[in-house]
Amino acid sequence: MSNSEEDRRRKYEEALEIKSLRRIISAFLNYPEAAEEDLKRYERSFRRLSQADKALLSHLPEKYQRMRRCISRNTFFIFEMLKAFDPPLDISQDPDICKQDPQNVSNNTKETNHCSCVPASSRKEFHPEGGEASVGGGGSIISKFTKTTSPPPDWLDPSLQMRVPLVDVDKVRCIIRNIVRDWAAEGQKERDQCYKPILEELELQFPNRSKESPPSCLVPGAGLGRLALDISCLGFASQGNEFSYYMMICSSFILNQTERANEWTIHPWIHSNCNSLSDNDQLRPILIPDIHPASAGITEGFSMCGGDFVEVYGDASQVGAWDAVVTCFFLDTAHNITRYIEIISRILRDGGVWINLGPLLYHFADLYSQDDEMSIELSLEDVKKVAVHYGFQLEKEKTIETTYTANPRSMMQNRYYTAFWTMRKGATANLLP
């Protein structure tokens, strides 16, 4: 590829990333307006009731006003989070992507069921208490995050805000529920179901951990970072990897900007009137985070790395670099799960362990309208066959029942019967070139 073609490709990818980032920022900023539209719909329905029904349900108008106050608290948290975000690019630009040459350029801005993805060229690391870091495989250097106050940065100017589909705002609501799972006392039961078996297995596999030379553990699909932090607190050199900017913006804020436990109040359950036992349950406040991350006792070297797992860890510098890989609700985020497994094998040292917990709810399985969208959907039996092909030996296996971002006081609970296993990489593995 000539220098001019490479430069054109780079500019196009940068323009795509700016566009993606602006859309994600706008989704966060659109949150209060979308929530208000829901409330207006509730109020319109109430006005259509008969006078007798209105008298019977006379408390509902006050409930809707309480919901507005809850939305205001959520909006305050979101805006403070955005003010602390340091974009890797100047997103106040409005690049004209149409002027760029899209040929032979991979568009990695497609979205999964849960979160929007961003190009791997934006991969970066976040460290509690600031600091700078580089990422192997061509990642850029980024500066530390610093505590911010008013005024907000220029790129939060309302004139730069985009109108985004409601599905994007739904991702913001999803993030708010994920905060409870990872960073609230109310999420402890779910963390005990999902994270505790992994943490206990790591302790069994690495009983004699050295503070001077701690074992290394990678957590792909780390989400908001709690599992990666808990692993670090066990005495591992832990790194979380996450592809979604929705997740990265929020995890960075909690990990780097939190000054004390229970610093923020959110109301994560207000966006559904279904299956509530009471209005107070639906509107209840949740304090976050349940711990102060910087005071949790992390092992030196803990970090969060942003970027596509295949792009970042498929790099030659990652071969044999990790003692353990932990995947929790991650494998089914793949377009091609066999590639995930091959890379996990590649980056583990001989004798390294892979601990997995999760279902097989393939994120790209229902994108029927996108003919070019690849999705390889294997049964659990086939997943294990692929793992054996890439040099893994199954040592432990069981089924664990768990929820995912569930409201513990809801009348409806969706449960997964997840596959939990420990596999060890043998001395010889069938790795792709």
List the helices and strands and how they pair.
Blueprint: H1 3-29, H2 31-47, H3 51-56, H4 60-84, E1 124-126, H5 166-183, H6 188-205, E2 216-220, H7 226-233, E3 237-242, H8 245-257, E4 264-266, H9 279-283, E5 286-288, E6 303-306, H10 309-313, E7 322-328, H11 337-347, E8 348-358, H12 380-389, E9 392-402, E10 416-425
Parallel strand pairs: 2-3, 2-7, 3-6, 7-8
Antiparallel strand pairs: 1-6, 4-5, 8-10, 9-10
Question: What would you say this structure looks like, in words?
Answer:
- The chain is an alpha/beta fold and 433 residues long.
- The protein has one domain (3-91, 107-149, 156-425): Vaccinia Virus protein VP39 (Rossmann fold), CATH 3.40.50.
- The protein contains twelve helices and ten strands.
- The strands form two sheets. An eight-stranded mixed sheet has the order 1-6-3-2-7-8-10-9, with helices on both faces. Strands 4-5 form a two-stranded antiparallel sheet.
- Helix 7 (226-233) links the parallel strand 2 (216-220) and strand 3 (237-242).
- The chain starts with a helix and ends in an 8-residue tail after the last strand.
- The relative contact order is 0.13.
- Residues 102-148 have low confidence and may be disordered.
